[in-house]
Design a protein that fits this description.
There is one protein chain. β25 and β26 (444-449) form a beta hairpin. It is built from six helices and 28 strands. The mean pLDDT is 90. The chain is mainly beta. The termini are far apart. Among the domains are: 125-207; 218-306; 317-401; 410-496, Immunoglobulin-like, CATH 2.60.40. This is P/Homo B domain-containing protein. InterPro entries: T9SS_type_B.
């Protein structure tokens, strides 16, 4: 196409007022057939300066900015964040900005995190004394502080203050011979040679003497087997042995020999339930510092099984009922003390009685005297040594007998206090008896029975003379019905005289 001016199909005047900003599209159409399809090339496209608008500048504005969510971010203060990485290595965090045109920009910030120094605070260095000057080897704690870290990768140095340890200033020059005169604290600095990181650990040097406080011997009473073997709770001595020392700071073990206590071998495995092997027996105790077993003191106490007091045998008791109606026998318990003591001093022992073996063993619910015992009852007598508290007990059986009924042949109701009534000893042991008295004519003059028994005193309560003074002197007849299948009724006479 030859150079020249070419006009558009549509005049540019139609574009007046059209916004110039933005994308322009120019469509070039070859309307000439003679050029065989060759159109043209741009050697330069120049616009009339009159139609070019004044040049402008466009500054986008900031709308929002934020750090994208990350679990490592523990605090946000504007565009500042605090992060706590949970893994070693590279940890990255994204900051996002959005401008006023809606464009978003992201910047990633990465930090390299060295592996955590897994050192630990070591157990205290124990100086087994209360006062004085001593040197300790701090370096003996190096491996404990490293807690498995490779020694060639981690250096341990010691300082007199945490500030010095943090600043790596004024290290202790002779940590293997560190002089101390009282409990003190130093700080270990663990330095990672690979990543140039460090961590500090507190190291305590503690003066702590171990004391064994003397305790009384343990004594137990022998049981009824009399085998001189009992089960002792050795741990009951711990509080006394420690005294004012804290149980948390010390270990206490019990042994059968001094040599074992010193060597800390062969400790008694069940100190809370230990059966003595001899009587008496020495028990050896080792009190060790809980953090340093080589800091210890030993002591001993004895355990002893005390013999039960000797006890005499009490013969079984068989007697007539004191109260025939209830078939009970009143026992004066002190009457059996002499048999229980069997010649021993009454002042040295206490004797008590019980109606069950369990109470005799526990000492609960002792019987009072006199005691109304029943037939076939067992009574337990307990003797207690006043000095030791040890005791033994024995038993005896009670038989309440049905005794012979003794019927007198006469009485004299004259109020002289002698034979004033028709008294029939042991009649009341029959709970259903009946007594009837007749005169010589066969008339009933007196009746009574077990439920309302009153001894016949010569005054009739039946017949024409009932309640009318004393009966005349003479012979009277009576019938006693026992109403007992094993006892024969009685019919006989009695003479009344004044």
């Amino acid at each position: 196409m030859p150079a020249g001016n070419y006009a558009p199909e549509t005049p540019f005047s139609a574009l007046v007022g059209t916004t110039l900003n933005g994308l322009w599209c120019l469509d070039i159409v070859d309307n000439l057939q003679i050029d065989n399809g060759y159109i043209f090339y741009w050697g330069g496209l120049n616009f009339n300066p009159a139609i070019i608008p004044t040049a402008g500048s466009y500054q986008p504005g900031e709308v929002t900015e934020l750090w994208l969510t990350n679990p490592d971010i523990t605090n946000t203060n504007g565009s500042d964040i605090t992060v706590t990485p949970t893994t070693a290595g590279q940890n990255c965090y994204d900051f996002e900005l959005t401008d006023s045109f809606g464009c978003t920009y992201t910047e990633t910030v990465c930090i390299d995190v060295a592996p955590e120094i897994t050192s630990v605070q070591p157990a205290d260095i124990i100086v087994c004394q209360n006062t004085g000057s001593v040197t300790v080897d701090l370096t003996a704690k190096d491996d404990e502080i490293r807690n498995g870290l490779v020694a060639s990768d981690y250096d341990v140095t010691y300082f007199n203050s945490d500030a010095d340890a943090q600043a790596d200033m004024n290290p202790i020059l002779t940590p293997d011979a560190f002089a101390v005169t009282t409990s003190t604290t130093v700080w270990a600095r663990v330095f990672d040679n690979v990543n140039s990181c460090f961590k500090t650990e507190q190291v305590n040097v503690t003066f702590q003497e171990v004391n064994y406080n003397t305790v009384a011997d343990l004594e137990l009473c022998d049981d009824l087997s009399a085998d001189q073997v009992e089960t002792f709770d050795l741990t009951s001595q711990i509080a006394g042995i420690l005294g004012s020392q804290s149980a948390a700071d010390f270990n206490i073990a019990f042994f059968n020999s001094q040599a074992d206590a010193d060597a800390n071998t062969g400790a008694i495995t069940t100190p809370a339930a230990y059966d003595n092997v001899s009587n008496p027996e020495a028990i050896f105790v080792r009190v060790s510092n809980a953090q340093d077993q080589d800091c210890y003191q030993t002591g001993q106490f004895n355990i002893e099984v005390l013999s039960a007091p000797a006890i005499g045998a009490v013969s079984d008791v068989s007697d007539c009922a004191t109260n025939p109606i209830t078939n009970q026998l009143d026992l004066v318990l002190a009457d059996y003390d002499a048999a229980v003591l069997n010649g021993q001093s009454a002042a040295a022992y206490t004797i008590t009685y019980y109606n069950s073996e369990a109470n005799a063993q526990s000492g609960a619910s002792a019987l009072s005297s006199p005691y109304a015992s029943t037939d076939q009852e067992t009574i337990y007598a307990r003797i207690t040594d006043n000095a030791t508290g040890c005791f033994d007990y024995t038993s005896f059986n009670i038989t309440v007998e049905v005794c012979e009924v003794v019927i007198p042949e006469g009485f004299s109701p004259n109020n002289d206090g002698i034979n004033d009534t028709f008294s029939i000893p042991n009649l009341e042991q029959y709970p259903n008896f009946e007594l009837t008295v007749f005169n010589r004519n066969g008339s009933t003059v007196y009746e009574t029975k077990a439920s309302n028994y009153e001894e016949f005193a010569g005054v009739p309560n039946k017949g024409a003379l009932a309640g009318d003074g004393l009966l005349p002197v003479g012979t009277y007849f009576y019938v006693i019905k026992y109403n007992d299948a094993e006892t024969e009724d009685v019919a006989s006479w009695v003479y009344i005289n004044y």
